[in-house]
């Protein structure tokens, strides 16, 4: 499989020639990969908890959640060419599914969540809250619900060959509508304030620093697992097909594949990752609200992946972490300067270095490029 | 009954604003396949033009009339600058252009915050626009505000002027040629780069006019463009790329649907319903109401 070659089409894009994987150096690459993941694991599991304060570690947990979304984006956008400006929708679905369960668990059996009593508009739990009393249902829902929603949207949209800018706008509008819907239904969703003030996480008290550290470890482990999974997807026949669809959808269609199905899988998987990220974000940060999932945060998810390297797994994840970190540390001190810097860097990278900062390494060492190029 | 009528009128005036914005977007999208996310900030620039002009001229009426051409020029100049600096370098990468222009919009918003401050400001509406026409008096009165009629008139004037330009002038002929087949147009001796720039000037200028119109019905603020631009994009998606008549129909249809749904349900449910309606509509006509027939696949 590794000596399988893909030639990108010149049909609708810039048409750079790309080869994925070749025999020589595959063994070295595998060792480098194993070494890279081992180093990342040591950093995340041993070094970071040892040197960072509890406060900083919680911030890192938040950045890692964004990195999870970025991994999904690099699959759907970097490899699949689908510019998803609405990952906030899936992040929010996962986040709210988890938050609803935590709220119900805090309230205890048969009781209403505190905010519903506060707004006093309802004395009965809405029917769609009821299933989230069960932890099993909630854990399944955090990725199954976003994936199901993505499957329905993707099926309708890709089947009718809605793509490119049309798809981008539509996905963005969906995220915006979801945020507006949540704000509008304050009595059952918490409105603008969102859901917050969680006491426990599956029986563990969240005010205990040890338990909050455990949440961090869960997040770090999930991120590494998702990255390995996505890497396998990239290297599989499916990954090759996805890149082929991105570069020349018509050619793939003429070869007898169904491009709509290929795109749908990537879109659904990326939605599942965003949902999982949203769900883990809730215990780590302690809030989920419409402000975290609307238009602006949805594009923010993309910025890290774009700056780091959209088609590169490591690039996208590191980019997301770096941008989130810089946002937190720099925007506190220089809010205006940070906005100019972030936007400027984003413009320059997207316009003149579409492979992201990670592609600089390849430019410098003249290694073979990762498959990136034509955007539809 | 009168309630439905008055909601429809509100819808039509929402549609008129959307139309003004969508006209410019449609022009640049059709011309270069470029989604300009900074279009919303050109609207903002037009609106702040009114604010600045009013600071120097006391009379609200005169300042509005001066602002109209001035906002067109300011927004148009910003558009040309953007096209010249960035967009023409990203030819054939439409999705990257979308992202780059979003970065530009982020910068322009911050610029507005630095110059005018983060809080919203208000422009004075002229006295001759503050009245309203009462059509049906009594229990269910139906009134049409002058300002909304003015916006409707502005939108109609813009559509007529743009149609005449595209149909009757040599510039319009060149623009249409580039839209239909860029390579062939270039081979026929049309300076496509210059046509692109002029198109961008007109399209962005129309955003400036929309900004002036928006000052009559709402506050002026750094994020005013972002809030309305998505709806304008949806108008383009429904109307079809580069199709003026599609944009006209779609703008009024979406405006009226939104307003009527808002009356019968809530604002948030109305928005979701409109969006579901759009996805359903795309199942039927994925390329929008009107499409440019080409021989390309799909």
TrEMBL record, chain A:
The keyword Transport does not apply. The chain crosses the membrane at residues 34-53, 60-78, 136-158, 165-184, 214-234, 264-289, 301-326, 338-360. NCBIfam families: urea_trans_UrtC. The keyword Isomerase does not apply. GO terms for cellular component: plasma membrane. GO terms for molecular function: branched-chain amino acid transmembrane transporter activity. This is Urea ABC transporter permease subunit UrtC. Its main location: membrane. Keywords: Cell membrane, Membrane, Transmembrane, Transmembrane helix. Residues 1-25 are annotated as: Disordered. It is a multi-pass membrane protein. Residues 15-25 have a biased composition (Low complexity). It is found in: Cell membrane. InterPro entries: ABC_transp_permease, ABC_transptr_urea_perm_UrtC, LivM-like. It comes from Streptomyces triticirhizae.
Automatic annotation (TrEMBL), chain B:
GO terms for biological process: amino acid transport. Its main location: membrane. The chain crosses the membrane at residues 12-29, 35-53, 65-87, 149-166, 198-220, 232-257, 269-286. Pfam families: BPD_transp_2. It is a multi-pass membrane protein. One of its GO terms (molecular function) is transmembrane transporter activity. It is found in: Cell membrane. GO terms for cellular component: plasma membrane. InterPro entries: ABC_transp_permease, ABC_UrtB_bac, BCAA_transport_permease. It comes from the Bacteria. Keywords: Amino-acid transport, Cell membrane, Membrane, Transmembrane, Transmembrane helix, Transport. NCBIfam families: urea_trans_UrtB. Belongs to the binding-protein-dependent transport system permease family. LivHM subfamily. This is Urea ABC transporter permease subunit UrtB. It comes from Streptomyces triticirhizae. The gene is urtB.
